[in-house]
Specification:
By secondary structure, the chain is an alpha+beta fold. It is built from 3 helices and 7 strands; from the N terminus they run H-E-E-E-H-E-E-E-E-H.
Length: about 160
Amino acid sequence: MGWVVLGRDASPWVPTCTDLTPRLRTELGGEWTVTDPDGDRDRFHSSSTCTISFVTADQRYTGGIDLFTIGAPDPDAARHDVDSYRCGGTDVQVDLPRGYHAFRICSATTSMRTLVSVYAAKGDRRVTASVTVNLRDDVRAATTYARDLSRLAADRALTMARPE
């Protein structure tokens, strides 16, 4: 409810994984690769669904980021969308970051991986950033990394300016 996919010439523009990957590589080091690009980018610029795989610089963590970003010019509808997502794990209680219309974190851990998803709306965009980290030993540290990375990826998807 509340979102509409806009045509190529409509606004707002949202970034794809191809736009975000170089920024993540620069900010965090390590290896970042778009493993599932947005196949509809040639038709739409107001929505993007894509996946990035990563290996941290210290090779401690490997995993992926699934991103869904969409133009959401109505803050009330975007807030409703974020609030109505099913959490699939633990709904982590956090304060609403400054400038956001809505923000949620959900976390789930199995014996092999941890999954942290951020659902957020800010400005004229809404994003779901789900980070999966493969577990090796320290579950708490891996979950913290996944939470920090999902917040960072969501923030970059919500705030990245359209390239000139």
